[in-house]
Please model this.
Amino acid sequence: MNLTMVGTGYVGLVSGTCFAEFGINVTCVDKDTGKIESLNKGQIPIFEPGLEDLVEKQVKAGRLRFTTDIADSIKEADAVFIAVGTPPRESDGHADLKYVHAAAKEIAELAEGYTVVVTKSTVPVGTAREVEKIVAQYKKPDSVIDVCSNPEFLREGAAVNDFMHPDRVVIGTDSMRAVEVLKEVYRPLYLNETPMVITTAETSEIIKYAANAFLATKITFINEIANLCEASGANVQHVAKAIGLDGRIGSKFLHAGPGYGGSCFPKDTLALTQTGKSLSVPQTIVEAVVEANKNRQVQMAERVITACGGSVKGMKIGVLGVAFKPNTDDVRDAPALVVIPTLQQAGAEVFAHDPAAQEAAEKHLKNVNWVKDPYDVSKEADALVIITEWNEYRALDMSQIADQMKVRRLVDMRNIYKPQDMRGLGFHYVSIGRPEVSPKGSAKLKQVS
Ligand code: UGA
Model:
């Protein structure tokens, strides 16, 4: 089979490479010349564990190539995937579909014979129908094009594995012929008995938003329960474990933290609320989630200030982690982008470390002292703040850190350390949804295991 992937962002590059691993000839197209030049030199523009090796392997096998020339591959393609960006419009938060529409027009003008055009980008309900209209308008008279929605559910940092082992594949189209082509594209997964949900394009589009909005809701829910735990002396980790053991609830995405970030949840929750408004069916739960998550990032900065006695003026604060989550260099909507400037505005000097996201964060943050060694952020610091739970922060020598800090104060926004261990090292330790401990505060500690 021959397949063209239009757009080499996160979803396009990972999906294209993994389809090549399935044995399909894949051409990845992007208008960004610099990006394609880098890819052709074997340089991967995103930080994604396992991707570089896979790209190299597939390019060597002759199944994967990169080009800026869309005309190059469309004629032979059995399926053309649209995986271009759908950023929120600044004016109203609606997903901006101009790149999707432009790609649909270009593909239609070039396609020959039978082609399936697949929307892989996260797009609001109704987009596949719009793409159908565009291709009908611009296609060659003797070509036949079916349109299909096939959303992607991969996570950054685990993208290759998620693509290869999905919980389900969703195919939304009215055309059985298109379904057969897509089943062939996903043949290795089909043979593995990965569930395939075959449905209409509208349903498929809503599935993607509903999945992300539900997960964002789950996180926001447990974050609010964490607040309740703090106010009442309970422990949110125990609450999450106990409710998660109920199969109807499930244990995943119940880690309380500084609020969700990244390129998907913030954008998709907002887009869903906008779709709800435009169809006169307000998505009030998701609206509340969007608001609560926005407030949470600000509250996290306030929590640091409170832990420092109400003012951070003139203090030196060390920050571990600026990426929105581990195993990525992505800082889009990362809590650190709110926490750090808020601390700076309150008069703190910030030292920061991140294993992968410094370069991306430098574009958004000013006057941060970046260090290469995570231990260096705590030297002479008045407080240490853990914002991202990178593995390398889980096993730090905390006694060394305690020794080199000016004041032993730790705000752990990911609950990666144990309160009693931190108390033992003389820390005033503040975490999420668990009682605060200080060297003297032993009464509260009894409730924490
Ligand atoms: C998310 C979804 O998980 C994917 O299924 C989906 O395909 C993707 O969006 C997308 O639409 O493209 P991603 O944004 O890469 O993936 O990251 P997640 O691992 O889902 O984490 C999102 C945010 O939630 C992070 O800020 C993370 O720290 C936070 N989170 C996650 C929590 O605070 N608690 C949790 O228990 C889980």
The pocket of uridine-5'-diphosphate-glucuronic acid is lined by residues 122, 152-156, 212, 215, 219, 253-255, 257, 260-262, 264-265, 268, 324-325 (CB under 6 Å). The CA atoms of residues 187 and 298 lie 46 Å apart. The chain is about 45% helix and 15% strand.
